[in-house]
Amino acid sequence: MRTSGDAGPIVFRHLTEVDPADIIDLMNDPSVRRHLPLMRRPFDAEICAGFVAAKEGMWASHGYGPWALTQGDEFIGWGGLQPEGPDADLGLILKPTAWGVGRGLLERFLAFGFDQAELDSVIALLPPTRRGAALKRVGFVTDGAAEIGGERFLRYRLFRSEWSGGAVGDVDAGRR
């Protein structure tokens, strides 16, 4: 069953506010893992605890980071901006039942990055299994490739000056 607008708005929360079992289930879903080439072993409770701590720590060190995404009472994934070297990298991992809601989330993440975090550009690193079509529709352009953990990723970039999205209001997730 696909998550739809009928299930209510998608709310941005701290990753610490969702059940770790939900994160573990998402990160171990075979449909999701096939797009995560750096996931080389099962995502267990110990890995999850480190993952959540690291993602939450990004907020303190950079003023941005990923959110847990919920719709109604359901955790549907996580995403947002995270530091990748000197850049802010857009990441979005959704349950397969929520695939299809990414465009609206992408626009909210970009509004936060450009309007609130005042970033000059945002990158997205995709494994070669992904085409980047949704990114290109909002203005991202191909910007080379990167190797991380021995895996090749295609890099896309969007400059604030090229973004046509405009403000969508403050992203409120109980953040600083």
Question: Could you state the order of secondary-structure elements as H and E?
Answer: EHHHEEEHEHEE
What is the CATH topology descriptor? Aminopeptidase
Number of strands: 7
- Beta-strand proportion: 25-35%
Number of individual domains: 1
The shape is globular
Number of helices: 5
Q: How far is the N terminus from the C terminus?
A: 35 Å
Largest sheet: 4 strands, antiparallel
Q: Could you name the CATH homologous superfamily?
A: Gcn5-related N-acetyltransferase (GNAT)
- Mean pLDDT score: 89
Radius of gyration: 15 Å
Strand order of the largest sheet: 1-2-3-4
Assigned CATH architecture: 3-Layer(aba) Sandwich
Q: Output the CATH class name.
A: Alpha Beta
The residue fraction in helices comes out at 25-40%
In the predicted model, the low-confidence regions spanning at least 5 consecutive residues are none
- Class from secondary-structure proportions: alpha+beta
